[in-house]
Amino acid sequence: MARGERRKLSLEEWNRKLAAVKIRKQDMNNLIMNYLVTEGFVEAAEVFMAESGTQPGVDLPAITDRMQIRKALQSGNVEDAIDRVNDLNPEILEEGHELDFHLQQQRMIELVRQGKTEEALEFAQEYLGPRGEENPQFQAELERTVALLVFPDARDSPLGDLMELSQRQKVASELNAAILSSQGQEQEPRLPLLLKMLLWAHSQLEDKLIYPHISNLATAELGHQAPDG
After folding, report:
1. pLDDT (tens digit, 9 = 90+) per residue, 68-82?
2. Can you state the angle between helices 97-113 and 165-182, rounded to 10 degrees?
3. Phi and psi at residue 176, to the nearest 5°
4. Where are the domains positioned within the chain?
5. Angstrom distance (rounded) from CA 52 to CA 31
6. Where is the CTLH domain (predicted)?
7. Reported pTM
8. In the chain, which ranges are continuous DSSP H helix?
């Protein structure tokens, strides 16, 4: 084979190599349970535990509490989410100054969303302003948030990204990670990380081999070989 030329693997040869890789079933079960627990699929975790015997490693009712907090925040009910977090573990917000700021920031954004301009301004002065003075790293975010009040329609403004549902999701994810950390759990499931590693490995391998690619990530179905060049 000439220097620089990539070797070609047939589907049959590739399948033989895959079959030679031994993965323990329990490792796969633990990976699945980790995903269900981290993402909050309580009922699915209970069924999987009963069927596979894999232990979740956490108190499943606590997952329900975490998901209710996340749902409240994603729905814009920030005060309800804060109350629930404090009931669950008040130290989460006491120790997380950045998280606390982002929650208060989101409270103001929700007031702007409801058209409560005066109330939002009072809230900024009473709650957000002091936090910005105590923590200069929040100043830029504070200024952007308060600037929402300048526009007649904050959604249709240069700061409209703060009004998007993705902003709620961002804060909900930050809070979810903080709760998981307080419970000694991983903040992100391992499965998506492994998928990213798989895709990275594929890209690295393409420089050396022409081989059957996964054409469907959901089913791991192998498609045709990647074209040469």
Report:
1. 999 999 999 999 999
2. 150
3. -60, -45
4. 25-58, 59-183
5. 12
6. 62-119
7. 0.70
8. 11-19, 25-39, 42-52, 60-74, 78-88, 91-95, 97-113, 117-123, 129-134, 139-146, 165-182, 190-205
Q: Which residue has the tokens 């998280």?
A: 99
Torsion angle of alpha carbons 98, 100, 106, 111, nearest 10°? -140
Distance CA 1, CA 81 (A): 63
pLDDT digits (tens, 9 = 90+) for 144-158: 999 999 999 999 999
| C-alpha span between 95 and 108 (Å, rounded) | 21
Over its C-alpha atoms, the chain yields an Rg (Å, rounded) of 24
Q: Which residues contact 76 (CB under 8 A, 6 or more apart)?
A: 110, 113, 168
- Are 192 and 31 within 8 A, CB to CB? no
DSSP 40: T
Helix (H, G, I), strand (E, B) or coil at 118: helix
Tokens 């633990």 map to which residue? 30
Rounded Cα gap, residues 89 and 106, in angstroms:
20
Instruction: Determine the Cα–Cα distance for residues 203 and 207; give it in Å rounded to an integer.
Output: 7
Which sign, positive or negative, has the C-alpha torsion 14, 211, 197, 3?
positive
Integer Cα distance of 3 and 118 in angstroms: 72
